[in-house]
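2024-03-11 09:14:02 INFO queue: dequeued item FAD-dependent oxidoreductase, len=305
2024-03-11 09:14:02 INFO validating residues
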Amino acid sequence: MSEQKDVVIIGAGPAGIQAAIHSVRKKCNVLLLGRIERSALFSAHVENYACVEGVKTGEEMLIAGMDQAKRFGTEVMEDDVLKVHQEGDGFSVELESGVTVSTRTLIFANGTSRKKLKVPGEKEFFGRGVSYCVDCDANFYRNAIVAVVGNASAAIDGALTLTGYASKVYLVNQELLASRELIEKLNESTVENVSGTWVSEIAGDGDVKTLILENGKTINLDGVFIELGAKGAMELALEIGVQLDMDTMSHIDTNKKAETNVAGVYAAGDITGHPYQMAKAVGEGCVAGMEAAVFSRKQKRNEEG
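2024-03-11 09:14:37 INFO prediction written
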């Protein structure tokens, strides 16, 4: 995809969809990335949202919102995002399909949830061999033996990244659920693909030493990276220097215009903190979409001289 985008939105929940609707209606070229089933709203029931009568399922609301965004002209791709980079005055977004998209502005609207394995040893060894961020912690595992656990794009991309650091990399998965291009990269790499099983326990003595699998096998190692689903907003945002809230370092810090500390980068929804409510997500998505549209139009005028 070589076309320059005005606005790229990462996340197809209520914040991302609302951002798309508002930015595309301001005549912007908008790309919305994500899958609605990844949204926390998808499996919820809603009865406290203003002007909506009765109980609605999150799924039907997201489907309706996505149809609306498409009808106004939003381009939608269900690709996972692997990496984001600053590129001159704009940004580039690498997708699991191998496509790289250039954009003038970015909106992070992909939530905050960090999925856990929920197995013995995971909590106990967090920070002592258990990590949730390859890009953050890979450097600590130079010449070590590590495993990545996960079925989707974040796990595969993490395993490939770790081959540049660790002496041995395992990828433990039940079934690979990613693009053909990304799986081909995995198959051509030195990563040992341990497929068809899952983790039953993480064990060690002070630090992680062993990964115990459901098929009865064990892997002796130095570190375990848990990468479930797509890469999270935090990891992607940190790649381009987006600042987190100083108190908890658990949310992206924004102002009333949904702006982050990086010019051209906005955030909306759960990723900006409590309360985790659809009403807040939609309101912030509205602001982020409009502000990103204004910023991208200014950038375009500057480019045209």
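2024-03-11 09:14:37 INFO annotate: Residues 72 and 305 are 29 Å apart (CA to CA).
2024-03-11 09:14:38 INFO item closed
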